[in-house]
Fold this protein.
Amino acid sequence: MLEVVHHTITRTHAVLRALRLPAVVLGVSLALGGCAGPTTGPAPASQAVPGVAQRAQQVLDAMLRPADADAAEILLDSLPDPAEERTTQHPNIHRRGTFDTYRTLLFDGAELVVVEPGAGATRFPAAFALTATGVDVERGLHVGMDQAALGKLLGAPDERRDGAWRYQVIDDPTAAPYQLDVTLRDGRVAGLRWSAYLD
C-alpha cells in the first residue's frame, strides 16, 4: 500500500513539476518513511558538517512554499556535503523499468530527504527533520521548547500518539498544506519533521 502511494506521489509530482504548477500537499510522511527505509535521524554534531540546521527556515521555504519553480533546485545546489548519505531506489509503477531514488542526507542536527524521480522530473526535497537546538523556525517553533508553549503556538494536534504530535498545516493560502510531526520527550520538543507530499 505504501509503495503504491509512493509511486502515485512521485508520478504526480513529476507531472506538476513539468507543468510548473504548485504541488497540492496532503499526507505522505508515512509513505516517505516506508519507502526511504530505516533512518536513525540527524547525525550527531561530532560526525557532521555544520550549517544546514541553521538554514532550517530557508530549507523549509524552498520545500513548502517555493518562491518559483527553481527555488528547491537552487537550495539543493547550495547545501554542503552531508556527513552521511543513504540511498534507496524504488520502482516507479507508472513507468515500468524506471526507478525513483530517495537520498537521505544527514547533517549536524538535521536530516533532508531528497527524491530524484526516475522519469526525468526535477529532484525535490520531500522531508526535513530538525533536532538541533537554538534554531527558531515557523513563528518561533524550536527544538527544546516546552509542550505547553508548543500547544499555545500551534493549538491542539490533529493526531496524538505516545510521545508524538502530528499537525496537518495550512498556514498560507497560496502554498500547499504540509505535515508536521513533533517528537516530545520529558515534556519538551525533541525533534521536528516537516513532510511535503502530494495528493
User: Anything to note?
Assistant: The first strand starts at residue 84 and ends at 91. Residues 1-40, 43-50 have pLDDT under 50 and may be disordered. The chain has five helices and eight strands. The beta strands are 84-91, 99-107, 110-116, 124-130, 159-161, 164-169, 178-185, 188-195.
